[in-house]
Amino acid sequence: MVAVSTEAVREKRVTLNVDLLEVADLLERVPRACVAFAGEEGPRVEPVTVVCNGDGRYFVGLPSSTANRLGVHTEVVLLVDDGVQFFDLRAVYVRGVVEPPNGMTVLADGFFWFEVEPTRTAAWDYARMREVDDES
User: Fold this and answer.
1) Which of 15, 54, 59, 60 makes a 20 to 30 Å CA pair with 7?
2) Half-sphere exposure of 6 (CA within 13 A, CB side)
3) What count of other Cβ atoms lies within 10 Å of the Cβ of residue 23?
């Protein structure tokens, strides 16, 4: 007879995920940002200007020449990232739906503005890669 243990085996995995607050400086000083979405002609990626006022609201500005490609209520992914070398790579990922901003008509001239209402956020920092308990 073989004895079988009923104790759960704790497995480890490697993660580079961090709390959004740990990379908040990326949202204060946006190095690079783009928004990805499914347009009429297929997948699109457009560079954007980002304004985040620290309360979980994300405003993206597209040049008026490209803003007509992004419709209201469109699902988007906003990516703000920094770094070139492997261990310098950090990013904030926001998945959500774009809406016209409430109560804000002009944030900067020459841009058409949307507010991204987040449905999911994530952040990562390659310099913080570490082993954690697998909770799955």
Assistant:
1) 15
2) 0
3) 19
Tell me if 27 sits within 8 A of 50, measured CB to CB. Answer: yes
- Identify which of 22, 29, 13, 28 has the alpha carbon closest to the alpha carbon of residue 125: 22
Structure-token pair, residue 96? 């959500």
Task: For the full predicted model, state whether its pTM sits above 0.90.
Answer: no
| CA–CA dist 48, 51 (Å, integer) | 10
The domains of the chain are located at 13-126
Pick among 2.30.110.10, 3.20.20.140, 2.40.30.260, 2.120.10.30: CATH of 13-126: 2.30.110.10
The per-residue pLDDT for range 2-22, each reduced to its tens digit, is 666 556 667 888 888 999 999
User: 63's torsion region: left (phi>0), alpha (psi -120 to 50) or beta?
Assistant: beta
Which uninterrupted H or E stretch holds 64? helix 64-67
What's the token pair of residue 1? 């007879």
| Contacts (Cβ under 8 Å, ≥6 apart) of 100 | 72, 113, 114, 115
